[in-house]
Structure formats: structure tokens, C-alpha cells
Amino acid sequence: MQNKQLFTDPLTGILNRQEFNRLLEIRMKDTDPYSMMVLSLKGFRFINDHFSQKAGDVLLTRICAFLEKELPAVRIFRFSGDEFAIVCKDAETCRQCHTQLIARMQQSWSVENFDFRIQYGIGILHVEAHNRDKDEIIKGLEYAVMLAKRSEENRTCVCTADMIERLHRNERVLELLRQCIREDSFIVVYQPIYDVKEQAYTKAEALLRLPPHNLGQLGPDEFIPLAEENGLITEITYQVLRKTCLFLQQLQHTATTLKSISVNFSAVMFLQQDLGNNILKIIEEYKIPAHMLQIEITESMLSRDYHMIIAFIQRMRKQGIEFLLDDFGTGYASLNMLSVVSGDILKIDKSLLESDNRRTRVIFEKVIEMAHSMDMKVVCEGVETQEQRKLLCMLNCDIGQGFLAGKAMKAEDYGKRYIKRRL
Q1: Do residues 116 and 108 touch, judged by C-beta distance below 8 A?
Q2: How many CA atoms lie within 13 Å of 365's alpha carbon, on the beta-carbon side?
Q3: How far apart are CA 397 and CA 186, in angstroms?
Q4: Is 396 left (phi over 0), alpha (psi -120 to 50) or beta?
Q5: Mean pLDDT throughout 99-107?
Q6: Which of 71, 119, 156, 240 gives 20 to 30 Å between its CA and that of 93?
């Protein structure tokens, strides 16, 4: 009895993760191909929190009972709290099991007089002679599951050789990010932002860049999501914030038209209870006026963490910090968010500027009018030609940002180009 407890899951009675790992170690010694998949439940915590843990346990045992009864030709394991691993003898068996599993998961599960239709993600990996390493198999499965669960829909993701290579690259990128954090070696560049009405460069946006490395082309679109998913973005943002505040401190002793610099915040930042205090401490440390710092948030962030972010905005605005609502026009709740967010500046996505569609142009113009009626200034991104600059003037847009105003540059280069003299 005691030995059985070592390799079975106490709730469901099926084999546990330890036995799953042991199976992979055994299969490393042979060359026969086999397949496996992981069923991962989405939003399972909601059931535990809003019904009861007992209800959650019942649901898990019923899913497990289905797997054991309807898929007898496979081995079932409790992969993690809300995940089950299914090991199949070959790819065809895996395909058949997957079809049966999908059909059942599309139906509801009855638990304590409630019917639950559970969302899920499925990761599949086919083990061949060349990919027998246990750790690589587990990483590949977990990566496939993660990609599957990113989708709002129920999705299956098959781990391929390209995905394994992507996984290895991600690990190298993460190590580079951790090294940059340890050495405080991130580079911050500043993109000038032109005030159409004042005809001066009054603002800038702080943008994150990496120091020289050997990973080839590696832009923010690739490394920022990795930093967010792996708990690195908070420290990275604080380093960007400190470098920006240092630059702002230096600007106070110059004759410059630059009034403020904005820093982009990830949604992950708002999970910290002491975020506001930390920001105010940094501002105080560098002895800069709070109004010289601006914080950029995206429209999509507000749709996910609404109450927490609204409270943060209200507190920081009382201290003089302005907020920019970025990527306006690319989300699903734009007008609703504007009705409740006390933002200072609205950043319009460049797609509205680039379109030559008449209706899009009307929308562009009306958004600017609406923002002005709410005492908000408007920044248009992606301004690259004189024709676009003239259009902004004609539409009464306040500020233009893009290559026409200037490419992003380091603090010292910004100073040489835009700051005339020291006081």
C-alpha cells in the first residue's frame, strides 16, 4: 500500500508526475517512436474559487474517469494540478485519442447540480529516434501547451522541430535578459515627439534596446513577451525608469523644449501592491518634478485589469504624473475605456493615419475631436512624411511621433541634437 502511494496520485488514483518522468527515462533507452499529449484545463481556479474545492476535485476525477474508460489503449498520468498526460504507443493512436478527447471536451461536465463547459489547451509531441532526451520532451510538451492556452479558443498545438529550436532560442534570450538585469546593461533610447502646435520637440518616448549580443536580430516584439512570461519585466521596467529619470535630471540644467518622457508599463507591473510607492521613491531619488514623467499603458491592459489600473492612475495623477493611452483603435473596448479612464494623452495607432479609406479618415478626425472635448491631447504614431504631418495639422492633431520627427537615439545623442546649451 505504501509503495503504491509513491507512484499514484492520491485524488484520482492514476499514475503521478514522478512515474511519468520515470517512463520517459525508460523510453530513452529504446528507439521505438511513440506519442504523447497533455490536456490542460483553462480557468480551473474559477471553479475552486466560486464553487468549492470539492467541486473542483469532483470535476478532475470525472475527467480522469473518462480518460481511463474511453482511452484504454493509453497510459494516463496526472501531469500537474489541472493537467493530464496521455502516452500513446504511436502517432495513429494519439490521433484517435485526440479525436475522442476533443469530442468529449466540447460537452459539459455535471458537478453538484451544475454543468461546466471547460476550456482547455492540448499539447502534442511525437517522440522519434532523434529526440529521446527526457528534459527536452517535457520542455517541448509544456511549450506546446503554453502556446495552445494562449488562444482564447480551445486549441491543440503539436510540438515540431522548429518549435524545439524556438524553445532553445527562448532559453538563450532569457539568459541574455538575466545577464542584462544583473549588469544593469540595458540601453534606453529616446524617440523625439513633435508638438505640432508649439512646433517644438516637447516630448519623447523611452524605448528599451539590448546591448550587443550574438543572437542575431532580436527586437522588443520577441524579448518583451518572454520577459513578461518569465517574471523579468518588472525589474527591467524599473531599470528603464531609473535611466529615464537620470536623463530627466540632467535635462533640468539645460535649455531644452523637452518637457516630459514617457515609459511603457506592462500589465504585469500592476500586480505589485507597492508599485505607486516605488515609482514615487524613484522620482524623489532623482529629484525631478513628477510631471516630467509619463506612463504609457495600452487599451488592452485596461480590459483585463480594469479596477486595479484605474485606482493606480488616479493616485499617480494626483502626484502630477500624466498617462498615455497607447494603441487606441486596435482593441475592442475603446470608447468604453475612454468614458472611465482619466488619461491625459491619447495615442492613435498609425493604421488610422496610413489608411486612405474615406471612412477611416472620418473616424480619425472624430476621434481627435472627441479626445479634445475630454481635455485630452492626441498623439499620432507613424508620422513619416511631410504629407502626413500636414494632415495632422489639418485635422488639429496635437502631436506627431515617427521617423519624420526623428529616430530613437541614446541620451547623449539626443542632447547633441535637441539641447542647445547648458544653463
Answers
A1: yes
A2: 11
A3: 33
A4: left
A5: 95
A6: 119
Per-residue pLDDT of 257-286, as tens digits, reads 889 999 999 988 988 889 999 999 999 999
Distances (CA, A) of 185 to 123, 170, 279, 293: 36, 19, 21, 22
Structure-block grid coordinates of residue 258: 523637452
% the chain with pLDDT above 90: 50
Contacts of 260 (CB under 8 A, 6+ apart): 202, 203, 204, 291, 292, 293, 294, 322
| Long-range CB contact pairs, 411-414, < 8 A, 24+ | 411/188, 411/190, 411/243, 411/247, 411/250, 414/190, 414/192, 414/204, 414/247
Burial letters for 96-128: b for 16+ Cβ neighbours within 10 Å, e otherwise?
Answer: ebbeebeeebeeebebeeeebebbbbbbbbbbe
**Coil, strand or helix at 87:** strand
- DSSP 3-state of 209: strand
Which tens digit of pLDDT belongs to each residue from 156-186? Answer: 999 998 998 999 999 999 999 999 999 999 9
Q: Residue 222 contacts by C-beta under 8 Å, 6 or more apart in sequence?
A: 173
- Which pLDDT belongs to residue 215? 94
- Residue % of the chain over a pLDDT of 70: 92
More confident of the two residues 105 and 418: 105
Q: Please give the Cα distance from 72 to 86 (Å, whole number).
A: 11
